[in-house]
Design a protein that fits this description.
The structure is a homodimer of 131-residue chains.
Chain A: H1 3-14, E1 19-20, H2 21-31, H3 37-49, E2 53-58, E3 61-67, E4 72-76, E5 82-85, H4 90-97, E6 104-111, H5 114-119
Parallel strand pairs in A: 4-6
Antiparallel strand pairs in A: 1-3, 2-3, 4-5
The first copy, chain A, binds a DNA duplex (25 and 25 nucleotides) through residues 2, 4-5, 20-22, 34-39, 41-43, 45, 60, 62-63.
DNA sequence: CTAAATGCAAACTATTTGCAACGAT
DNA sequence: ATCGTTGCAAATAGTTTGCATTTAG
């Protein structure tokens, strides 16, 4: 792992946000003014391939990069905010229902976050806010 | 619903594939030579907003459009192929674990499809083939 | 010394937007 | 006559690529 890769991994692991490449770039830039966005993307892809982070693709919004610690996501149907949550016993239930070997899974549960629940307004199907 | 919207909905409901906008466009074009891709996108977004179809965002590949009939997805970690599957009892289990009202969920289970299992080669984390 | 990583700019892909023309109420 | 839908072209956003240069083992 190169220095940049380590730092980027650090940024992702340290943050509770689900950061976009751009946000990671802006953060890294504070200490490494020379770094460019393409390098951040290269390293993010590298880290994904190595399985050190995971990429979360959301509709109508750039990809997020996330720790690999096992957890699921709550997604607000109005503002698109992502929150970590851990549903238990899911894996066993899945395994019981599929013959093939399960390599992993990705679960997103849609809801209205506390802020949006109060406010009303149009929900957006499919899980994500249209900008 | 306009004619185009109906036809696009028809294409999606009739196909067992999870089609991209481009594929839908190519299909529609056969009977409607004048239609353009932007119109297909407009209608797809419309249909999503109305909840008549759902959009499936995958990494490193264009969005797919899918029927709304309740089902989950198996995703091959090597070739990225999407297959429908229905896991049962999931919703109840989720509801038991969350106080907030659940508006829906999206579950993808990663595995190796029969074709790829035989062939070997590098898997791709995060669920989708890099092109 | 060599191979891999970086900076930079340009390319690319998927998708959206603005606007004028069209079509259906 | 009006308002939403379409075609078209151009714009945009996010991400990737090619290549010359630098860096690290």
């Amino acid at each position: 792992m190169t220095n940049y890769a380590k730092m980027i991994l650090g940024i992702i692991n340290r943050s509770d946000e689900h950061m976009t490449a751009e946000q990671i770039f802006q953060t890294l830039r504070k200490t490494e003014p020379k770094v460019v966005l393409a390098t951040v993307y290269n390293n993010l892809n590298l880290l994904c391939r190595e399985g050190r982070i995971r990429k979360v693709s959301l509709e109508a919004s750039p990809d997020r990069y996330d720790r690999i610690v096992k957890h699921d996501h709550l997604v607000c149907r109005k503002c698109g905010k992502l929150t970590d949550i851990r549903f238990t016993d899911l894996c066993d239930s899945l395994k019981g229902q599929l013959e093939e070997e399960i390599l992993g899974y990705d679960l997103r549960v849609f809801y209205l976050c506390p802020t949006c629940r109060k406010q009303g307004g149009e929900e957006c199907r499919g899980g994500l806010k249209v900008k």
